[in-house]
Write a structure and sequence with these properties.
The complex is a heterodimer. By secondary structure, chain A is of the alpha/beta class. Chain A folds into two domains: 197 residues, Response regulator (Rossmann fold); 148 residues, Response regulator (Rossmann fold, 3-Layer(aba) Sandwich). Chain A contains 14 helices and 14 strands. Chain A has a seven-stranded mixed sheet, sandwiched between helices. Chain B has one domain. The longest helix of chain B is centred in the first third of the chain and has 32 residues. The radius of gyration of chain B is 19 Å and the shape is globular. The termini of chain B are far apart. The chains are: A alpha/beta, B mainly alpha. Chains A and B meet through helix 1, strand 7, helix 9 and helix 10 of A and helix 1, helix 4, strand 2, helix 9 and helix 10 of B.
């Protein structure tokens, strides 16, 4: 009897264990900063002796939602709180104080929708920012549509703007603020290879290690023809589950197949540190260059014990601490460090910070235009949509939205910078307009 | 082809050796005290995190490792004497309490360290090349330590007086009491050993890979699956089963792809249990 109970328990544990694999992160491209652009200071609301009534509104509530045990979530929370603090010091939004409320998705769709609903209905959030993870985002978008809450979101799947395009009236409250569509990763990765070739690096065979997740399928769909155009052979395409650690066998497989470049496309696996460590220890004669969300963390080098040296990665989200693309970004990273004792732990911080400010800008623009209730979500959407190609909001990045509310990708907007870890520091190595370092090759290559 | 064979032999042995340590500890405390310890994975990862913290604080990495392993042994004894000793007759209660401890500690680790991995400070570095196959000294160290510790465990259980008392207690609780064995003391020693084995496994694992709070659940799942496969309470069975699992993972990785590795291992476990429900070395109760 005991054995049967134990076997049942084992099966339950196995199912539970498998269920933990659900987490999904998001990927983001980074914008290219216009070197000379100085972000316009956020409009300061005119202080009025008596705030406009706005239906008796007494405060502006900003919701932050994300996985609060992960750097992505804590960065969003910290950045939004910093923005609110700065805005309150300037008099708030249209004279109303900003209050930040936080929801924890725990990277689970059910928790995420429950928390989103709580923020929207109980906390009465005027705008919610955050998200992280495309699968979870899709679930939250339904609650967003139901509660008509402006959602400046963090997710990279092309599916979300497609929903906006398909059912605009229902999903128009959703805007992507943190990063580009996942499909733009393909362009960034192809440019990374072009850059390496320009630097004299031979790249003819690529071995891909990617998340076992739908978001990487979209990347591969775009990347495969781009590699074919460049006569590059994909000699390996390995999918790894969340928490995967046995990279050594994959690295040796890449070596056996003559790969010149090992390209991670990782966000959900969460073990890019192990990959970097094993690549460095085995001194595999192929560059490690691709997208790894973990590598953007300013503490990544230390966490890998220095094994991240020479790791080439995409600085997702448009900002790298060591090379902020705008004046506002430069001020923000230093303010963040002053407030929290360290630089932003993930790129999601820039999106959340920008979200609060662009919301403020839209509300104030609506007010100046004579809108009766500038906080009305339908009104806010109308004014957010004014930030479009040719008229970006100059924040920590140059933020503009397409008609489907996806973030505009490009050197003058938001895109992934090609960056590299060198002796404990992150450097942007491409494009030259923002580069603050040059490519360095590992001594064993 | 020889290179691939070398890879499979070496990598499978390392993975198997680490999981054998963890599973032996799990099996030991279950076999002796009938405690199904769902907090076992916590000992595995706690030793690693403590070692990392100590080493980063300037403590010699080897000394940090020793301290952290002994600490989890002491922590396990505290859990046993403070909680489990009072409820060990109630198997379901033991499961609930140990599971609660596991979840609590995991959450604390997440709050302190976050969910992303941290590497254990290198106890050894370098690469040995066998043909075209590079093998890190860390893997070699992990395998050697695992084998030595398992051999010492075998000697301790079968050749020492305390070990024999542990065996006696596992075979017949009342009988052990009748011949004058202080069974409670034996249970405490066993709990200590069980946690130390998990702690050693944790340090070796995070040397090769990385420490993350989620690894505690992974360790528990592997320990549980291996113990069931090897036969409940059979240390020998756990060791054999651990190497079977290690090689299935390695071979699947090599020939089918990374995403199938753990799936294949669990499939084999289920298949074996269908034909031999008592596990490889288990006996009918």
């Amino acid at each position: 009897m005991m054995r049967k109970v134990l076997i049942l328990v084992l099966l339950a544990v196995l199912v539970f264990g498998c269920a933990q694999e659900e987490k999904k992160p998001e990927a983001t491209p980074t914008p290219k900063p216009a070197a000379t652009e100085t972000p316009k200071p956020t409009p300061t609301p005119e202080k009025t002796a008596t705030p406009p009534p706005f239906g008796g509104k007494k405060e502006v509530v900003i919701g932050v939602i994300g996985p609060m045990a992960l750097p992505e979530g804590t960065a969003e929370k910290n950045a939004a709180m910093l923005a609110a603090k700065e805005i309150n010091a300037q008099g708030g939004i249209l004279g109303l104080k900003v209050r930040v409320v936080v929801g924890d998705t725990k990277l689970k769709p059910d928790e995420a929708t429950k928390e989103f609903r709580r923020l929207a209905t109980e906390e009465k959030a005027d705008m919610i920012t955050g998200g992280f993870s495309s699968g979870i985002m899709s679930a939250m978008m339904e609650v967003m549509a139901e509660t008509k809450t402006v959602f400046l979101a963090d997710a990279s799947s092309p599916a979300h703007p497609a929903m906006v395009a398909k059912e605009y009236d229902k999903y128009k409250y959703w805007f992507r603020i943190s990063q580009n569509n996942g499909s733009t990763f393909a362009w960034d990765l192809a440019e990374m290879i072009d850059y390496l070739r320009d630097q004299g690096v031979t790249v003819n065979k690529v071995y891909i290690i990617r998340d076992e997740h739908v978001w990487t399928d979209a990347v591969m769909k775009g990347l495969t023809p781009l590699l074919e155009e460049r006569n590059i052979e994909i000699v390996g395409d390995e999918k790894v589950p969340r928490g995967y650690t046995e990279y050594e066998q994959l690295l040796l497989d890449a070596q056996d197949k003559g790969a010149d470049l090992i390209m991670p496309i990782l966000a959900i696996a969460g073990t890019g540190d192990v990959l970097a460590k094993q690549w460095a220890e085995l001194q595999i004669p192929a560059l490690l260059a691709g997208h790894d969300l973990a590598a953007i963390d300013a503490g990544f080098y230390e966490k890998t014990g220095g094994a991240a040296n020479y790791y080439i990665f995409l600085a997702d989200g448009g900002v790298l601490v060591t090379a902020p693309p705008t004046e506002m970004a430069a001020k923000f990273v230093e303010a963040y460090k002053k407030e929290y004792g360290h630089y932003p732990e993930s790129h999601q911080a820039y999106g959340a910070y920008d979200a609060v400010y662009i919301y403020k800008m839209a509300v104030e623009a609506a007010y100046k235009a004579g809108e009766k209730n500038p906080f009305d979500p339908d009104v806010v959407v109308k004014y957010l949509e004014k930030y479009k190609p040719g008229n970006p909001a100059k924040l920590t990045r140059n933020v503009a939205f397409h008609k489907n509310h996806a973030l505009v990708w490009g050197d003058d907007y938001v895109r992934n910078w090609i960056a590299q870890w060198q002796d404990g520091k992150q450097y942007i190595i491409y494009p030259s307009t923002v580069a603050n370092g040059q490519l360095k090759l590992p001594p064993w290559i | 082809m020889i290179d691939i064979a070398v890879r499979i032999i070496v990598y499978g042995a390392v993975v198997g050796g680490i999981w054998a340590l963890v599973a032996s500890g799990f099996s030991l405390i279950f076999g002796v005290a009938r405690i199904l310890n769902f907090a076992h994975g916590i000992f595995f990862i706690l030793a690693a995190y403590l070692g990392i913290v100590l080493a980063k604080s300037g403590v010699n990495p080897y000394l940090a490792t020793l301290i952290s392993i002994l600490f989890v042994g002491g922590f396990a004894v505290a859990i046993y004497t403070g909680l489990l000793a009072r409820i060990k007759e109630h198997e379901v209660m033991v499961i609930i309490v140990t599971l609660a401890i596991a979840l609590l500690v995991e959450q604390i680790l997440i709050i302190i360290f976050g969910e992303h991995g941290i590497s254990y400070p290198a106890l050894i570095s370098g690469v040995l090349r066998i043909g075209k196959t590079p093998i890190t000294y860390k893997r070699i160290l992990a395998f050697v330590v695992a084998v030595v510790v398992l051999a010492l465990l075998e000697l301790f259980i079968h050749k020492t007086r305390t070990g024999k008392m542990i065996m006696a207690s596992s075979q017949n609780y009342e009988g052990a009491l009748l011949v004058g064995i202080n069974v409670d003391r034996i249970f405490i020693i066993t709990m200590f050993l069980s946690a130390v084995l998990a702690g050693i496994g944790g340090v070796l694992y995070t040397q090769v890979f990385a420490a993350s709070p989620a690894a505690s659940l992974k360790a528990l799942i592997f320990a549980f699956a291996i113990v069931i496969l090897g036969g409940l309470g059979s240390i020998k069975g756990s060791i054999v089963a651990a190497f079977i699992i290690g090689y299935i993972i390695t071979i699947t990785n090599q020939f089918l792809g990374a995403q199938w590795a753990e799936f294949a291992a669990l499939l084999v476990i289920i298949a074996i249990l269908v034909f031999k429900p008592t596990g490889l070395f288990g006996v009918e109760e």
